[in-house]
Amino acid sequence: MRDPAAGKYQNWYKHEFTMAEKILAPYNGELEWSTNDYVAFTFTSDKVKLIFYPHKVNTGNRHIRVRDGGSKTPEAFKRAVALLGIGSGYNCTFSVKNYHNDSYESQIARSEHIEFGWANKPYRT
User: Fold this and answer.
1) How far apart are CA 120 and CA 35, in angstroms?
2) N or C: lower Cβ tally within 10 Å for the chain?
3) How many Å separate Cα 85 from the centre of its chain?
4) What distance lies between CA 11 and its chain's CA centroid?
5) How many percent of the chain have pLDDT more than 70?
């Protein structure tokens, strides 16, 4: 089945794309909009490959879910997802289905002195 929202993701998820670009910059990879059905954008580097896909909840709110697209190790994927969570702040902007990472995120943020929400600051009210 074709994606009925194909072509709309660049408008709907522009902010999330910009945050992911900032957060994943240390990985020296490539973040690009996807042409595949039901995929908003992808990130590929030597260590991780992430697939960002749209998710709409019952209330009609949209956010991005992240899936492992073939990262070198599960630890590399876990760390990249934790950094996305830290950079976007205390919200569900980037989530992984059936995966809760809060304590790991807090541990990284404390040990590396990273502020929660640092990549989301220009959009805060």
Assistant:
1) 26
2) C
3) 8
4) 16
5) 97
What is the rounded radius of gyration, in angstroms, for the C-alpha atoms of the chain? 14
For the domain bounded by 9-113, which CATH number is listed? 3.30.310
Residues 6 or more apart from 103 whose CB is under 8 A from it? none
Flag whether pLDDT at 3 surpasses 90: no
Least confidently predicted of 11-15, 41-45, 94-98, 104-108: 94-98
pLDDT (0 to 100) of residue 72? 93
Contact at 8 Å (CB) between 52 and 79? no
The two structure tokens encoding residue 71: 């990262």
SS3 24: coil
The angle at the Cα of 85, spanning 59 to 115, to the nearest 5 degrees, equals 125
How far does Cα 2 stand from its chain's mean position? 24
Kind of pairing, strands 94-95 and 62-68?
A: parallel
d(CA 104, CA 57): 25
Task: Quote the pTM value.
Answer: 0.87
Q: Tokens for 31?
A: 């973040």
Specify which residues 67 forms β-bridges with: 51
